[in-house]
Amino acid sequence: MDWQQYFVAGLIVLVFLAFVREWLAPELVAMGALLACAAAGILDLQPDAPNYALQVFGHPAVVTVASMFIISASLERTGVIEKLGELFEKAAGTGPKRVLFVMMALVALLSGFVNNTPVVVVFMPIVINLCRKRDLKASKFLIPLSYAAIVGGTMTIIGTSTNLIAAGFAENSPEVQNFRMFDILPLGLVFVVVTFVYLLFFGNKVLPDRATLASLIDTESSREFITHAVVKRGSALAGVTFGDTWLANAKGIRIIDVIRDGERLKSALTAIVFEEGDEILVKGKLDGVMGVTQADGLKLANAHEAEDEAGLEGVRTESAVIMEGIIGPDSNLVGKTLTQLNFRQQYGVLILAVHRRGKNLQEKFESVPLAFGDTLLVQGSRERMSRLFRNKDFINLSERSTKSFRYKLAPIPILAILAFIVLNTIGWAPPSFLALGGAVLVMATRCIDPKEAYEAIDWRVIFMIFGMLGVGMALEATGLAASMADFVVTSCGALGPHFLLAAFYLLAALMTEMISNNAVAAL
Q1: pLDDT-based confidence at residue 137 (cuts at 50, 70, 90)
Q2: What is the DSSP code (8-state) at residue 406?
Q3: Using CA atoms, how far apart are residues 22 and 514, in angstroms rounded to an integer?
Q4: Is 91 in contact with 136 (CB distance < 8 Å)?
Q5: Would you say 472 and 62 are in contact if contact means Cβ atoms under 8 Å apart?
Q6: Which residue, among 167, 166, 113, has the nearest Cα to 422 in the 3D structure?
Q7: Are 78 and 410 contacting, i.e. CB atoms less than 8 angstroms apart?
């Protein structure tokens, strides 16, 4: 081995450690490795050189992956996935095994052609609500939902971004014949059948029988309302810090927000000095200060007395709703505590409990850093809830998306997928060209706006692929890839190809427990 091979070998070890230890975001690690190979002179910086470092940005695998993100998003935007979710509700029946089978069959079929994430995001609230109606434990269905999406993606080349990466490498390799759409279907069906049999007959015994966070609250006995009250002119509250007012010690109510000049005050409640005209949001039960006289035109009970003695005048009262939300993969809240976020003032809602890794936390969770996958029990007005779940920080588990779908355009992305399948199967054009054509079609026909399309692309995956493609080029350019292959064949070749395949498969499976599956495929 020469110094370049030692350099690349050391770099791969360093990249792997950085992935496992999470020193930096995976995409930054990968791009840093690409730059290191170029800086060391292993990859060329001249455009006409055979190992030009920046040629990775034109790799067909990246074009295919990005385009399929867009096409998948167009299927979600036009309501295709939502309609399939409604079909699931109608066909699910009442028995737990039938519900499980119908759910997994639909999700696996859909995941063979659509990115897993929108499928799972759309089906999660549908499955949870169906379990509530059928008196079933949602904890018995959510992991099978995830597994069905994963194994469904193994049936086609476009089923997962990992398949597309592997197919993209094959597309550029003279030793490997290009993969077509259903070349991996026989193997994928084995995964699907084994997974279905296991989950239907054995999985139920090992999956937790766990109550959801919402079930911790008795909605009938603990139904609460949110009252908007204004500090009137001449009120004794004006100019006084919250802690020195009667509100701080009032029983049966809780202050959740203070609004001044149309803006929510984001400072801590204990630091707020009330001013005339401040709007205070008060939460309480029906038998507290928020008595309700009628369904419409709700008002503060004993409004005149409240004005005389407390210096507040009633404005409006609305029902407080309780919902479950999960911290999404793109959330800006990951790694921050509720206290650091000043969550109540920031979003105008209350966090009642946090669920993490099988435990429901109802106390002292404000100082726990939030993590991807945490489930939060949120209480607030429906308007505030809508605003909260509108961004990517939270995924609503209690209700389906309320955004308007472009149902009339639904046939177009379906046609794009079908055209991709047929033309790729017959080998009419490379997958990257077909996928790009489909992405342009759904954007040009307004199935999805360009801004929505760009947001649908997981740029972290894209840039990680760029970086790892560069590392792959360095492996080949230095001859290290050939040396590693020769070593494996010399050491284990006598045991036969089945042993090599099994060992390779096991190694990849173990690595995906520590680093991204996309990174494993690229490595």
Answers
A1: confident
A2: -
A3: 10
A4: no
A5: no
A6: 113
A7: yes
Q: Are 256 and 349 in contact (CB under 8 A)?
A: yes
Q: Can you tell me the mean pLDDT for 146-174?
A: 83
Q: What's the rounded Cα separation, in Å, for the pair 488 and 478?
A: 18
- Would you state the structure tokens that stand for residue 155, as one six-digit string? 């049936």
Indicate the pLDDT class of residue 298, thresholds 50, 70 and 90.
very low
Cα Rg of the chain (Å, integer): 28
Span 428-449, mean pLDDT?
90
Q: Per this entry, what is the length of the chain? A: 523
Structure-token pair, residue 182 = 């259903």
CB distance 457 to 63 below 8 Å: no
- Residues with Cβ within 8 Å of 294's Cβ and at least 6 positions away in sequence, in order, are none
Angle, CA of 67, 73 and 76, to the nearest 5°:
150
Q: How far is CA 292 from CA 231, 250, 289, 380, in A?
A: 20, 19, 9, 17
Per-position DSSP letters for 131-163, written without gaps between them: HHHHT--GGGTHHHHHHHHHHHTTSSTTSSHHH
- DSSP class of residue 404 equals P
Would the pLDDT of 300 be above 70?
A: no
Strands (E) in 365-431, as ranges, are: 375-380, 394-396
How do residues 327-371 score in pLDDT, each as one tens digit? Answer: 876 677 877 888 777 777 777 777 777 777 666 665 567 777 887
What is the DSSP-derived secondary structure letter of residue 296? S
What's the one-letter identity of residue 227? T
Contact 87, 93 (CB under 8 A): no
With tokens 């999805």, the residue in question is 448
Residue with tokens 């052609």: 113
Q: At 208, is the secondary structure helix, strand, or coil?
A: coil
Candidates 273, 223, 279, 278; CA nearest to 248 is 273
Measured CA to CA in angstroms, residue 236 lies from 233, 270, 300, 334, 478 at distances of 9, 17, 19, 41, 79
Whole-prediction pTM: 0.65
pLDDT tens sequence across 240-276: 887 787 667 766 667 777 888 877 787 777 788 888 8
What is residue 519's predicted lDDT score, i.e. its pLDDT? 74
Confidence band (pLDDT; 50, 70, 90) for 139?
confident
One-letter amino acid of 497 = P
On whether the CB atoms of residues 439 and 417 are closer than 8 A, the answer is: no
CB atoms near residue 36 (< 10 Å): 20
Q: How confident is the model at residue 215 (pLDDT cuts 50, 70, 90)?
A: low
For the stretch 419-438, pLDDT in tens is 888 888 787 888 888 889 99
